[in-house]
Amino acid sequence: MTVLMQVLTLFLLMLCGLWAMRRQVVTQSGLSGLNAFVLNFAQPALILARLQQDASLQLMQELLWVLVLACVIMTISGMVAHRVFRGQEQRRRSVLTVLSLASNCGFMGYPVITAAFGEDA
Asked: Which percentage of the chain shows pLDDT scores above 90?
């Protein structure tokens, strides 16, 4: 139930953003500033805040395991995307392949993972 509440909260926040854009409470230049703030300050700060814990052998092993899994998943996803988009021209195929690999899970993923698995996730 906690995950559902977290997702609903994020959905309501997205609706607030949609409303602000439709009512022109936030302009296009304001949106660019908010994006720059989130990408250049808030997201790195969130990552650094989550890494503020004592290092242990178990933590290092888990980080290595996540790195290996991420590399394997990205490699397989890249090969599948390259094959799926092979009918496209080269430049378009390259862009579509990269877009298939680069998810936007940072904005919604962190709060949902925290709600589902706790602060240590």
From this structure: 15
